[in-house]
Specification:
mainly alpha
């Protein structure tokens, strides 16, 4: 984190790595769909870490930390957050197109709406309001968990639609 790349490693270690390795350990094979499924999960945890750096921006800057938000600033960080969020939506769609059950989209809708709200709040610089930022951080974790839950429920309920 102190070099400004920890966020990327966290996205990898809590996104692609556990999803792909757990699939491999259970099946003994690699599957390209699993890679596509892991991308939105990794991107959402990246955004969780990124947004959680916003409240500590001034203190981190003063203390010499070099996390991504300190390196690029909150303005560019908010743009990055929005770009990542849009890519989460796109990659979720790609995973459906590639072969995940379509019903996963139904479960994703509430989290997609929350993500849209977070993008709007971020674009309006509401992260500058401490109480609003606190709520945004909590909702952002919900989006992260919701992506995985949407996939899980989609797989459990495939064929029911």
């Amino acid at each position: 984190m102190k070099r400004g790349v920890g966020e990327i490693f966290i996205g990898f270690c809590y996104g692609w790595l556990p999803v792909t390795v757990s699939y491999y350990l259970q099946t003994g094979e690699l599957n390209s769909l699993v890679n596509w499924v892991s991308i939105p999960i990794g991107l959402t945890i990246f955004n969780v870490i990124l947004l959680n750096e916003f409240p500590d921006y001034r203190a981190d800057r003063i203390s010499g930390k070099r996390n991504l938000i300190v390196k690029i600033g909150r303005e560019k960080g908010s743009i990055l957050y929005i770009i990542i969020a849009i890519n989460i939506w796109k990659m979720f769609a790609v995973s459906i197109i590639i072969g995940l059950p379509v019903i996963s989209c139904l479960f994703f809708i509430p989290f997609f709406i929350i993500s849209i709200i977070l993008v709007i709040l971020t674009s309006l610089k509401k992260y500058l309001i401490p109480k609003t930022l606190e709520i945004m951080c909590g909702l952002n974790i919900l989006v992260n968990l919701g992506v995985t839950l949407s996939y899980l429920l989609g797989i459990l309920f495939k064929g029911v639609y």
